[in-house]
Amino acid sequence: MLKDLFRKQKRYITVRPGTVPEREEEKEPLWIKCPGCGEILYVRELEKGLKVCSKCRYHFRLSAPERIAATVDDNTFQELDGDLQAVDPLSFPGYRSKLSSAEQETGMRDAILTGQGTIDGRSVLIGALEPNFVMGSMGCIVGEKITRLIERAIENKLPVILFSASGGARMQEGVFSLMQMAKTSAAIARLHEAGILYVSVLTDPTTGGVLASFAALGDIILAEPGALIGFAGRRVTEQTLKEKLPPDFQTAEFCFNHGLIDLIVPRNEMRQILAQILSLHSERG
Amino acid sequence: MPNVILDFEKPLLELENRIAELKQYAGEKGIDLEAEINILENRLRDLKKEIYENLTPWQRTQLARHPERPNALDYFKLLFTDFLPLCGDRCCGDDPALVGGIARFEGVPVTVIGHMKGHNTKENLARNFGMPNPEGFRKALRLAQQAEKFGRSVISLIDTPGAYSGAGAEERGQAWAIASNLFAFSRLKTPIIVIITGEGGSGGALALGVGDVLLMLENAIFSVISPEGCAAILWKDAQRAPEAASVLKLTASELLSLGLIDGVIPEPLGGAHRDPEGTADNIRAEIRRRLQELRQIDAEQLVAARWGRLRRIGCF
Question: Do B185 and B307 contact (CB within 8 A), yes or no?
């Protein structure tokens, strides 16, 4: 059943007309090499298995629509604030063309997809960052859409789930993007005061200003196995220390061993664990 | 005269040296050179005005990072009385890169926190160049929560290249510490005045940056990434940092016109390091005015207004 889940649900995701032309699909390679074990994998099979390598369990990155599809119940996702378009508040050199190529590549208007859906029949407000849109970085629109999602959660007393996959704050929007860290964290503080559940799921990669704001503030923090999770880039840290770091440095496992996250959850169990968390929070103890 | 002279200040130094030479020569030889000296002194004054009133973003970045620029403890001494340093995060250590405690501002007890840089290499090594570990951010949070309990206002001074990016910092949850501060400061039921006095470097700066007013000294900078880092990403060349400083819009005047900060505190001509007392006078006047306003607001309203300010940022 789990195997069918992904492909079945793909139908219910809003994909804007013209963003995924048929011939693009034909061009896509049939085979892909697993970065984890080097095994050559059949793409169709990989997608059936939620993009987890059948041999070594390496978790390939999911796009935001794929992530939502793999999480919510069939036919229940309704996108929110889908009309919000990335902005260029500083007229930063090269940013507009970067945005338009990101838009073409991903079919999204900025690096996040948010909306409402159900998991095992329970309503949730859910968001997923798009790692392929300017590295999933948080600028004004990402901050605004997260904030609106949280405001809606407070209004409707619904739990929030956010999947992070991001390089951090978006440099091209300068202090505007930096302040989205404060804005989203303050929104979560209000959600907290309202006594509403927030589950943060860290996926590959969750770094910088995204980790150092809403992603680190979940009542419950989950992570996918092997995900890169850290504040400063590994290269920066290596330069700072002038020494090689352990191979598991800044991985989900490293964070788990240092008590920074609650659980590492393999992708094929994520839906079930989220459903269990929602169920455990559906009534007061 | 400061020990460290920046490139764009060199014409000033030459002129100052010539004036000194002339004065010495006149004294030794008993010749009256007053007219010449006057001309040169006038020229010096004009040149100073011309240079410091037309600084490029990169030149301001250099001033913001000037090693002799007053640091947090200098300002604590200049602005407050009865400073009592308080230490430790009650978890694993005390961070010398972040200082804080209780003091009096014009007689009234306040809680003060700030990033702490050194004035020379030795001091900077002891202060980790003003780059806090998680312990520093947790100490700041502890002191701010203590301020709330005792009804003290918080004065937060920002001056950091950024949060420290060491392996230990990652192990002890650097990102979690910063996020917790953003979260908690946003709901603190006491007035918070934030002043960026030097370098406002990214998340490590922002961790002390959530408050009711965000002010910057005239030559301070505030940025999501260092100009060097930005240049390395944009053009694969950290040498082009001066250009990056321009595109990042990191100066006080630019950020004020973008609506991202609430005010700019003027520095005496030549920058804060040439006149720490004069700079402190300007800061003091601003703190006095802002505290007077903020103390009249009821705590619930204060927190609601703080949220309102953040909520609007980035809505176009």
Answer: no
